[in-house]
Fold these 4 entries.
Entry 1:
Amino acid sequence: MEPERILDGVFLVGSADISDSRDCMVYLLDVGELILIDTGAGPGLPAILSNIRWLGFDPTNLSTIILTHCHIDHIGGAHELKTRYGTRIIMHELDAAVVESGDTKATAAHWYGLPFPPLPVDHKLSGSKERLTFGQQEVVCLHTPGHTPGSISIYMDRAGKRILFGQDIHGPFFPEFGSNIFHWQKSMKDLLALKADILCEGHFGVYQPNKRVTEYIERYLDEYGE
């Protein structure tokens, strides 16, 4: 598989199929600045950077990484990007604590047999919603706890479509992650209310139109007893 364009200015640049088997799906936004949503586990970063170049972009222009939650398969490449390019890191304050302390259990780094030294977070989101602006593009970060206490989902309206980045909305849910199924159920209802045209999920692909997005989220609500 190769990197792909999902929508104007939105690209898939990393996944278990195109960068490393341990990677989540990594998305690149070209919105006046280059923004990366998650980074993969780390070992696949050279492939992710190669994919960014293949699409015609220069990774040295990556201004910001938005981390959707604290697990290693989503955050492991952030150290190197911050070191090499000075890339700013954004995530929710409730997951930032374990990232900044290098907690290998809460980040699930021990599951993957990967190191995770402490990582400073430049901007900590708080509350239920924060609107970020990059160039002319507004990007909305929603606090969607459940999988982890500080999980976020991201959406933006672009090219006549509402695109939602809902990483790991499928779970899993474990006490050591601080998971809360009741918080997750409310989060999923909040995501359904967005009526997104496109869902860029964390491991299982891209879903569109809205009917498929709704079916995907509702399937997990049914599975977990809603």
Entry 2:
Amino acid sequence: MRRNLLGRTGLSVSVLSLGTVEIGMTYGLPGSHSRPTAPEAERLIQRALDAGINHLDTARAYGDSEAFIGAALGSRRSEVILTTKVLVSDDSAALTKSIETSLRFLRTDYVDILMLHGRPGETLTSPAMLSHLYALQAKGHFRYLGASVYGVDVAVAAIESGYFDCLQIAYSVLDRRPEEAIFALAPRHGVGLVARSILLKGALTPRYRDLPATYSELKAKVAGLDLLGIPLPELAYRYALAEPRLATGLAGTADPVELDQLLAYAELGPLPDDVVAHIRQQPLLGDHWLNPGLWPSG
């Protein structure tokens, strides 16, 4: 599998990474696959590694994900670039406990990347928090500092702050906001980019048809893409992974069949030019649809 440099970290990451939220907890639209058992999770992780994926993304907040990864890696830890996340906090004891708990579950002495797990509008540059994180970095708990962010303004501020080696951002055929500012700015600062929400929590799959009437605006937008005649997950991944300034995109799945499909899409290369042009001509949805955390309840 093709690999790209993750900004100034110098880490070479596979163009497709394994996102593990669905391994550790219930996530996604109704109809998503159920959480795997520990043996099923181990087989999925091993399948990803055997296929050339070398970056696993998890978080303290992802239920059993870290424990499943730790059990699955065993002697293969050296093959993997590990990312985990810690919630934003000025409480040094809470930060230390979170990181040390992650290391224990992951069965490793360090993670390659520690990301701040930001919420929409949350400040990521508290001097007290950063000072403590740097102290933990100096102890060898993690190698590089990143942040998982929401929205263009927060991403731009994080890049320009100089504190972060890499960022995780939302990017999809529907959420193309990073194309206007982030993709041009990040390389100038040496900040590597990781894309999440490529399927927009499952909205860019056939499951969009089962969304309730309160989601009519989102459903209509996805239905328009569905008319292009390319399976929605293929459309989504081929579009996102073709962006040259993106180091890697997360394959968020707990299903081995779905993983194999995403691996195949990663090998197909960019979409036809006319399809890309059509996608880019479509007006963007409002932030209340591009951020699943703001979706209507139910």
Entry 3:
Amino acid sequence: MSCIYFTETYQRSFGTFPLKGKELRQALGRAFEAGYRAIDTAQSYLNEDAVGQAIADAGLRRQDLCITTKVRPDNFHEESFIPSVVQSLKNLDVDYVDVLLLHWPPIDGNVKPSLKLLQQAKDLGLARHIGVSNYTAKMMRVAAEIVPGPIVVNQVEFHPLLDQNKLLAAARATNIALSSYCSIARGEVFKYDLFADLARDYGKDPGQIVLRWILQKGVPINTMSRHPEHIRRNFDVMDFTLSSIDMARIDALTATNLRLVTSENTPFAPAWD
């Protein structure tokens, strides 16, 4: 079974930042036990080797996994891009990754050169699918125009406290789906009573309500936890559906517009839409 990025299994990906070493191997082992088969890492996380070891320890079939890694911007050059991806594969101990992303847009905003290098990596068989991360709506439109094959995803900050309707519209227009990181807004969502109220109504916990809302927006989720119970709960979000009324109640919170990733705290962050 090849990685079909948005099937039910792969809609829930285990994020690995900022875990490293033994802590990562233990957490990812627990994630595999809970049912995760999609794993998200990156060159800049400095943990691809530990991810590879955890995969080997789990003894799972390669074809049952969806492995995503991301190329860091300082490798967006002809002399270093492909060698860096080859090194990522060595670190992960795999022959290919299922999804290869550009981790950030270039500082100068010119996305064309790095997108061409990304396509080259796919053409060489180093990745089954390619995508981007932290792209604005304008960048998504440019990418859709210049990349000949499908771009499967734009991984972005996505949670109920941030209005990402412009990106959702761009996703529909370009056929570049979104996936989420910072899915619970680094815990900020738990300051809002609505999630606790809905958790009681649905017999779930507040975090599961948040994750279910994201999934029902058509956006796959990336979550990370060190704790076995949280890992299981983050995965067990497919057995209930939020009503349209409750979805709208959560939608209203996006007017908060809490953006966690900005140019003030992340040098590569673009000027967001």
Entry 4:
Amino acid sequence: MSTAKKEYKRITTKTLVDMKQNGEKISMLTAYDFTMAKIVDSAGIDVILVGDSASNVMAGHETTLPITLDQMIYHASSVVRAIERSLVVVDLPFGSYQSDPKEALRSAIRIMKESGAHAVKLEGGKEIKESIKRILNAGIPVMGHLGLTPQSIYKFGTYTVRAKEEEEAEQLKEDALMLEKTGCFAVVLEKVPAKLAEEVAKSISIPVIGIGAGGGVDGQVLVTHDMLGMTHEFSPRFLRRYLDLYNEMTKAFQGYISDVKSGDFPNSKEQY
């Protein structure tokens, strides 16, 4: 049941739980730099994810695996300096938490202390439970991530939809419940069947944020550069492009080049 939208001066982890209870959908986008984060925050987004997708979007890597903890802290610091309202969540990068709960805690502490972010996000279920518990015990909020977990791409071998088979679907439901019981404040579900995602969202009290998980969840997340149409090679079914900035920017650059070459720029009003 949806209610009138409440105005929030500052989004916190508690705000998101309240929004779920009030039937208000949660909006979430990525940002990796000061300028973009300032625009996204000013527009009124609820959550900004400093995603390890920066590995693809900002650095041009094929996967999210190469990005380092130091690089994630750099991007997160840039974002945090820009925001006034949004909750900033930062991905723990591949290799910084999977094998050792103590290392996971050290990684999370570095992100929180050095960037000023508000929470961290980890990919996985029962196999990383101890890392999540260690981080939560230090007072650091954790967002979970289930379904397609891009840091495990070489294990899966494909970016296809996850949890289509009953066994994997049951494990996903168990992991979602475990994340809630362990103390996570929210969970992202990526590329899972819409019916399953809705079932998970109804079965737990913490918000479920979907990407390629249908409309029956508590909120949505997209990569900002994708939804603005700055990227054009990537066109999954779940992506809605709100602008075509790739072509618009190309036209602007070509116009600038033409004006410089012709001597039209700068004109008499554009000089001192």
